[in-house]
Design goal:
Layout (H helix, E strand, L loop, with lengths): L1 H15 L8 H28 L6 H26 L6 H8 L3 H9 L7 H6 L3 H12 L8 H17 L12 H35 L5 H16 L5 H4 L2 H25 L5 H32 L5 H27 L11 H18 L8 H9 L10 E3 L24 E3 L1 H9 L1
Parallel strand pairs: 1-2
Helix pairs in contact: 1-2, 1-5, 2-3, 2-14, 3-4, 3-10, 3-13, 7-8, 9-13, 9-14, 9-15, 10-13, 12-13, 12-15
Length: 433
């Protein structure tokens, strides 16, 4: 709700900057800064809330909603700006600015009806409220959900965190499992931008023009729409196929597309109609692949953040992601434009290289986190389970966790030598001892 109020204040300052017959640019910038603060808060809060109020099996679907709504807003905003830009009246800029009120007003009105995260409530020792919230979120007339057991398991995990020598401090992010998780979150956010996301968002017109495309606006709107459709796959693919296969395959495909586009620029001294059409087709394919990958960025960031330092890791990862985006946006003109780097369409080689780096980085660094609850992920990371071994662990309940490695049973012979079963019974024995 606070985020919504800040956004409303910022937009109000923007809209009123043109009242009185004189435009006040400094006031507009101030309003934009305030509105951007609310966006920064939302980026840190919303994925965490969605991940904490979803089951392990449906967390990918839930967190993808954030990216879904974001891109839908981008498409609507682009359409409104283009339509209103044809006019010569104040409405040409007041309408786009005024429509920014819609989302935060809806947030403020609906927030009182949203249940609080049961995990956050348990962390604040509000166990009765956590049971009520868990029932609101998960209980149906047919699933027999046991909110008391669910909250009890979370409480055991949180008590384990509180009993650890490492408290929830900033310095803890520089060592142990928290450092590993921080590097995963920061890496996934930064590499998304380095693959070309930041560049395409800011300089897609220049890139299309340099590859021989002339009428760019229909192409851009088509790209946005296709990107949105691709993002919808985030509601089922991550929880079905897994995180790692999607991240690696889409990054590889994105790299191949940009490699071909830039190679065409090198091979053809004068842009031709055929080159333009081929480039458009490849960029559309890049957009589809990147759209499939995009929800995984927020899903992986939310899953990598440890319970005890969740907000800190999310904030740092987002900071680095936006920082890389700002860096790319700032230096790209000097790399691409004539009189400077003069790469033109060959700049795609850079983003393609980072796409291939992403494939290697995910393979060695990012474990498969599909299907695990937040408490189970804490257990796996705290016990230094190698990246390639995460899939071999199985838990006997949604929130079933273990307090140390002694609670993991021997490999289940029926399930295969690589499967390790962790039982909630052992957890309860340790928790009561």
């Amino acid at each position: 709700m606070t985020t919504g109020v800040i956004s409303i204040v910022g937009v109000l300052i923007e809209v009123t900057s043109s009242l009185g017959g004189k435009a006040r640019f400094d006031q507009f910038v101030a309003g934009k800064v305030i509105a951007s603060i609310s966006m920064g808060l939302a980026v840190n809060i919303v994925p965490i809330y969605l991940s904490e109020t979803a089951t392990g099996a449906a967390r990918g679907f839930a967190v993808s909603i954030y990216q879904n709504i974001q891109i839908l807003g981008v498409i609507l905003a682009a359409g409104v700006v283009y339509a209103s830009s044809q006019g010569n009246t104040p409405a040409a800029y007041l309408i786009p600015m005024g429509l920014q009120f819609v989302a935060p007003v809806i947030m403020v009105l609906l927030c009182p009806f949203l249940p609080e995260s049961p995990r956050w409530l348990v962390w604040k020792n509000r166990h009765d409220d956590a049971i009520v919230a868990a029932n609101r979120i998960f209980s149906t007339s047919s699933n027999g959900f046991d909110a008391t057991k669910y909250v009890g398991d979370i409480q055991i995990a949180i008590e384990s965190e509180r009993n650890r020598e490492e408290a929830s401090r900033w310095v803890d992010l520089t060592r142990g499992p928290d450092l590993r998780r921080l590097l995963i979150a920061v890496g996934i956010q930064s590499l998304q931008q380095a693959q070309g996301s930041a560049y395409m968002n800011s300089y897609i017109v220049s890139f299309l023009t340099s590859t021989g495309v002339t009428n760019v606006f229909p192409v851009i709107m088509g790209l946005y729409t296709l990107y949105y459709v691709a993002i919808l796959t985030g509601h089922f693919l991550p929880d079905t196929v897994g995180r790692r296969p999607i991240l690696m395959s889409t990054a590889a495909f994105c790299g191949i597309c940009l490699l071909i586009v830039s190679s065409l620029v090198v091979a053809t001294k004068t842009p031709s109609d055929v080159q333009g059409k081929v480039s458009i087709a490849l960029i559309f394919l890049w957009e589809i692949s990147f759209g499939v990958q995009s929800p995984l960025i927020w899903i992986t960031t939310a899953e990598a953040a440890p319970s005890r330092n969740r907000e800190k890791v999310q904030a740092i990862a987002t900071f680095f992601g936006f920082g890389v985006s700002l860096l790319i946006t700032s230096v790209s003109p000097y790399i691409q434009d004539k009189g400077f780097g003069n790469l033109g369409g060959k700049i795609g080689f850079i983003w393609a290289a980072f796409s291939f780096i992403t494939v290697v980085w995910v393979f060695f660094i990012v474990p498969e986190m599909k299907g695990f609850s937040i408490e189970q992920l804490d257990f796996l990371y705290d016990n230094d389970v190698p990246t390639s071994k995460f899939g071999g662990y199985h838990f006997d309940s949604e929130t079933g966790i273990a307090l140390d490695s002694d609670t993991a049973s021997a490999p289940d012979s029926d399930a295969g030598a690589k499967n390790t079963v962790v039982t909630t019974t052992k957890v309860r024995e340790l928790g009561s001892g």
